[in-house]
Amino acid sequence: MSSLDPRDPMVLDVRDLARRAGSMMEVERTVPAPADLGSGVAVVQRGTDVVLSLRLESVVEGVLVSGTASVIVTGECARCLDPLEWEQRVAFSELYLHEPGPEEEGLPLLDGDLLDLEPVVRDAIVLSLPLAPLCRADCPGLCVQCGARLADDPSHGHDLIDPRWAALSGYETTQKED
Ligand SMILES: [Zn+2]
Ligand SMILES: [Zn+2]
Fold first, then answer.
1. 48 to each of 33, 72, 108, how far by Cα in Å?
2. What's the CA-to-centroid distance between 154 and ligand 2, angstroms?
3. Which residues fall inside 5 Å of ion ligand 1, going by CB?
4. Which DSSP state fits 33?
5. Given this model, what pLDDT does residue 164 score?
C-alpha cells in the first residue's frame, strides 16, 4: 500500500529505474507551487510554475535525485518596501532510500516505486530565499522621520533639532545658572 498519490505532480514513479542499480533517467517537469512556499519576506505564490530539471540515478541504497528548481519569487525591499519580483534557481541533491538504515537517519524513503519531491524542493527553495531582500544593494530606504523614499529625494532632510542635542543644550544652560 502506498500513501503517495502517483497523480500528484510532485510525486515521481521510478519503477523503471529503481530496480536496476547504475541506471539513470532525466526528468523535466513544470509543477504548480504548493501553498506556503516561502519565508516571511519572500514567497513563491501558490500555483505559479516550479520548473524542475532532474537527474535520477539508481544506486544500491535507493535513488539519488539531483537537479534544479526555478521559481518566481515575490517580496518587498526590506528598506524601502517597494514590491520585488525575481527569478530564483536552486540546486539540490537527495538520496531516497529503499529501506531506512541506522546510518542514514533523516533521509527520505521511497514509497514502493514512488518518491515525493515536495519536501526536498520546498527545503531547497525556502533555505535559498533572502532574509532581507533589497531592491538594490545600496537602497537608501525610508526617512525615519516622515517615511519618504530617500531614493526619490536624495537631498531630503528636516530642520529639526536632534533630541539628543536639545537635551545637551538644556544641560549646559543649567550648568551656567548654578
Ligand atoms: Zn529598496
Ligand atoms: Zn523625511
1. 5, 8, 25
2. 11
3. 77, 79-80, 135, 139
4. P
5. 64
